[in-house]
């Protein structure tokens, strides 16, 4: 029996692009007074990770827990740092399927939003932290045994411009 995923509360890891389920993680201290929520994307700030003013930041990866940073730097969060990881994410750009595809597949998106409510929006064809790989409901969407209903707001993304793997647009 397939598990149905009907509502996305936050971004979720979806496995690696090569099909493997094991992925690389690293633990980092959370910035003092900052709440990082499970599923948030974080970036470095003075040797700690934060999600404050995340739009336009060079991201490190996705947090795997909810943590409030303290002044001693002892409160840490596990972060997915795997450059081949795929993520299911909400988009503020419509991802409607037409003729079994979506015209935004292959385009770049940037992240925005507060802790626990991060989304992505389309930035076009040349710049952005994420690349849209696929949309649930197309025949090319990976068969995982999960029942992910077609949606106009959820897509499968890969982090292409990160702290670990930066790019320079041509």
Structural domain tally? 2
Spatial shape? globular
Question: Which structural class fits the helix and strand makeup?
Answer: mainly beta
Helicity, as a percent range = under 10%
Number of DSSP helical runs: 0
**Rg calc:** 16 Å
Q: What low-confidence regions span 5 or more consecutive residues with pLDDT below 50?
A: none
Largest sheet: 6 strands, antiparallel
Mean pLDDT, to the nearest integer, reads 86
Question: Could you characterize what this model shows?
Answer:
Helices cover 0% and strands 38% of the residues. By secondary structure, it is an all-beta fold. It folds into two domains: 3-21 and 83-159, no CATH class; 25-80, no CATH class. Strands 2-10-15-13-11-12 form a six-stranded antiparallel sheet, with no helix packed on it. A five-stranded antiparallel sheet has the order 3-9-7-5-6, with no helix packed on it. A hairpin with a 2-residue loop joins strand 5 (41-45) and strand 6. It is globular. 34% of the residues are buried.
């Amino acid at each position: 029996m397939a598990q149905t995923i009907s509502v996305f509360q936050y971004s979720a890891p979806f496995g690696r692009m090569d099909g493997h389920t094991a992925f690389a993680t690293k633990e980092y201290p959370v910035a003092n007074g900052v709440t990082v929520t499970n599923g948030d994307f974080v970036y470095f700030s003075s040797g700690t990770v934060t999600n404050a003013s995340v739009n336009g930041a060079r991201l490190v990866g996705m947090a795997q827990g909810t943590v409030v940073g303290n002044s001693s730097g002892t409160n840490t969060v596990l972060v997915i740092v795997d450059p081949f990881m795929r993520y299911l994410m909400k988009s503020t750009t419509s991802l409607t399927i037409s003729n079994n595809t979506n015209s935004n597949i292959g385009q770049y998106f940037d992240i925005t939003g507060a802790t626990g409510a991060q989304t992505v929006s389309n930035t076009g064809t040349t710049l952005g932290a994420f690349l849209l790989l696929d949309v649930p409901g197309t025949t090319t969407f990976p068969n995982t045994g999960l029942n992910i209903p077609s949606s106009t707001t959820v897509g499968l993304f890969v982090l292409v411009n990160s702290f670990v793997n930066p790019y320079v647009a041509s």
